[in-house]
Amino acid sequence: MPGTTEDAPEPEKTPKAEEAPRAEEAPRAKQAQGAEKAPGAEQRAAGGKRPATRKRAVGRPRRLDPDAMVATARRIIEEEGVDALSMRRLAKELGSTPMALYHYVRDKDELLMLTLSGTADTFPRPELPEDPRERLLAVAVHLHGILARIPWVLDVLALGELTDKNALWMVEEIVDSAIACGLSPARAVRAYRTIWSYVYGDLVFRRAAGRRAENPPSTRYFPEMITEEDAGTLPRLTEIKDRWREYAAAYEAAEQLDAIIDGLLRHGARPSRSAD
What we know:
- The chain is built from 13 helices and no strands.
- The protein is mainly α.
């Protein structure tokens, strides 16, 4: 009958003591298996050198912040001049390497272009008059005023062909206004170059004069170098040398630009000797 002792299954036999693995032999077996798998185990056991391990691969340099890169480049130029800026110097300032910079810019010229980018937009555009002649003067004066406030840009522009594209609206206005005043496109371009040459040269001279004023030289320069002994060869300069700085202090860029534009427009109305 189910549930009686006669129907109960016989208990399973336990393995004999000699058939069960000994407790102390189990770890040895695992060690032996590990020894077979571990590379160089025999060499180490025999006193050989540990096999060389593979060096950890060098990771990529940390990503640079383009805005910080441009700001640092701009600071170097402002404080020390454009000649002080190099890819090596910038990389050192940023705690990076020159090669890392080349992931962002092709060369120093492109870096300089980035330092210029956006500078013109920091200055609001003035309200311009409708009259083309007055418009031409207003834009020229605005150009002079902007560069007077950011003189470091002159060092970059001096390298040639580098400019802030956002500043080209001033070139557009000057050329367009000159054409509206009656100049040919060729003469309008040359008029712009004349205006630019004046603006650039005036600001470079003013900056140099400012540096000399901060650190007066021991040597006498113009006009102090002129003495009464020079009256025979430099009569006019000898006559006004003592008032030279007084006259120069009353110098107004807007007034001079006005005179330059008058001359350009009058000259442009004449027949040209060369083909336009």
